[in-house]
C-alpha cells in the first residue's frame, strides 16, 4: 500500500514538472514540448519518467564532467544536413519516439536545437534542460545546482 502511494506521488510529481515545462514552452515560444530546470531533469530521470541525453562533445563529457548513466549523442556543430540526419538516426536507434527525452549541453543552446530537431523528427516529448551542464551564467547549470555528476 505504501508503494502505491509512493508511485502515485512520483507520477503526480512528474506530471507537475511536465506541466511547468509546458508552461515554459508557451512563455518562451518553444517549438518543442517544453523546458526543464536541471533539478527538474534530475527528478524526472530518478522517477524514470524521462531520459536525459547529453549532446556535448566527447572532450566536454570527459574533461568537464558528466552525469552518470545518460548516453552521449553528439550534436553536430556546424553540421551538414547529413550530419543532422545521422544525429536523428542515433536517437531513433536508442529511444522510442514516445519516450520523454531531456537534452543537455553546456549552456542550453545546442540542447535547445536538438529538442527542436527531434520534435520535427517525431519525438513529440522532447525537452531542453535550461542552463545546461556548466550554466549560461555564474551560479547556473547542473553542476552549480549541486546535482550528481562525475569526471572521467
Features:
152 residues, globular, alpha/beta, 6 helices, disordered N terminus, four-stranded parallel beta sheet
Counting helices, strands and paired strands, the structural category is: alpha/beta
DSSP summary, beta strand count: 4
How many helices? The count is: 6
Can you list the strand order of the major beta sheet? 1-4-3-2
H/E element sequence: HEHEHHEHEH
pLDDT under 50 segments (min length 5)?
1-7
The radius of gyration over CA amounts to 15 Å
- Mean pLDDT equals 92
Biggest β-sheet strands, sense, barrel: 4 strands, parallel
End-to-end gap: 41 Å
Q: Tell me the strand percentage band.
A: 5-15%
Shape field: globular
Helix content: 40-55%
Describe the protein in words.
48% of the residues lie in helices and 10% in strands. The chain has 6 helices and 4 strands; from the N terminus they run αβαβααβαβα. It has helices spanning 2-28, 38-46, 58-64, 81-94, 109-120, 141-144, and strands spanning 34-36, 51-54, 101-104, 126-129. The chain has a 4-stranded parallel sheet with strand order 1-4-3-2. The radius of gyration is 15 Å and the shape is globular. Residues 1-7 have low confidence and may be disordered.
